[in-house]
């Protein structure tokens, strides 16, 4: 049933949390099998009868086998010594699984210094093989010659399987680390892109406010000169100061919520673009091979330098994406609709199109910058592939009307 918990789920979770307890339990099981084989097997030929020393050697093997993953090389050496002693004493046994598993554990859990691992494993396998050869040469022994090759093949196969397991785990661990690093770098780049974009927005707004303050100072100076000789013109100048001051205060309030990095050398001092500069941008796109058309509907009833600059940047980013990702010869239409309280922007193209996430990854998070600019004015943005092909970017930027206007 869906959602039903598998009975082994809890066991597997416990095993992951307590790996050494699992090692001990497995070692006890294998040791019990070895001890059972030692006790029940009847001696043949020159084999010695069972005694306490043989049982002690199996206990040593079992104890060393419990830490085969914590310290596999020491575990293997102790098990090899006990195994050789067991063979030299010529005790009867049908179970040599502990030595075989210890060879496997040494290569599977032996760590990154593979030369040292294989020196120890090779030495142990060679020792076991020599003991087998000696067993064939001694006349009183009944070990067949074929057993020597079998010993060598079995233990080398066990070591090779352990090496394969080690290599597989290493590759999986490396892939996991790469995925973690890639995800971390992606998050850092996304955050940096947001901070960089906010910094640029702050500089843009700073220029708007500075421009407004400059106009206010000039108009106030003009009003001061004309107040006695031409009072009507002085009143007009003061009205302009009032309007400009309201606009500057509106932009200043927005700027307070934007993170801005410290001033850096090389900050652009050129005038910031507005919607009136879109014609030049359209021409640049045409020169770049994108047939671009600009459609303007309505007339601005109130112009906000900050909002128009944001609109310009959004259109700029959208057309940049068209140039980069449109593919085949592509046509784009930029539609600007001025409403009473908002500016609506729409950029449609008939290119190859791409997912929004792909655009962010490919263009340094360009869509993130668009969203930041729109969010600054509490507007909305949508971007994505069109049903008939191509890509569409649509934004609405509200305009705050000055106090006292209707």
Radius of gyration: 40 Å
> What structural class is derived from the secondary structure elements?
alpha+beta
Helix content: 55-70%
Taken in chain order, the helices and strands follow as HHHHHHHHHEHEEHHEE
CA-CA gap between termini:
65 Å
Mean pLDDT: 78
**Number of DSSP strand runs:** 5
- Per DSSP, the total helix count is 12
Q: Describe the strand arrangement of the main beta sheet, using strand numbers.
A: 1-2-3-5-4
| Shape verdict | rod-shaped
Strand percentage, roughly? 5-15%
Given as residue ranges, the uncertain stretches (5+ residues, pLDDT < 50) are: 259-270, 355-365
Largest sheet report: 5 strands, mixed
Fold and architecture overview:
This protein is of the alpha+beta class. The protein is built from twelve helices and five strands. Strands 1-2-3-5-4 form a five-stranded mixed β-sheet, with helices on one face. Helix 2 packs antiparallel against helix 3, helix 7 runs antiparallel to helix 10 and helix 7 runs parallel beside helix 12 (366-376). It is rod-shaped. The two termini are 65 Å apart.
What is the topological layout?
Blueprint lengths: L8 H9 L1 H22 L11 H14 L6 H18 L7 H12 L5 H24 L8 H81 L4 H26 L21 H10 L3 E7 L7 H21 L5 E8 L3 E8 L6 H7 L3 H11 L3 E6 L5 E8 L8
Parallel strand pairs: 1-2
Antiparallel strand pairs: 2-3, 3-5, 4-5
Q: Main traits of this protein?
A:
rod-shaped, alpha+beta, 406 residues, five-stranded mixed beta sheet
Brief rundown of the structure:
By secondary structure, this protein is of the alpha+beta class. It contains 12 helices and 5 strands.
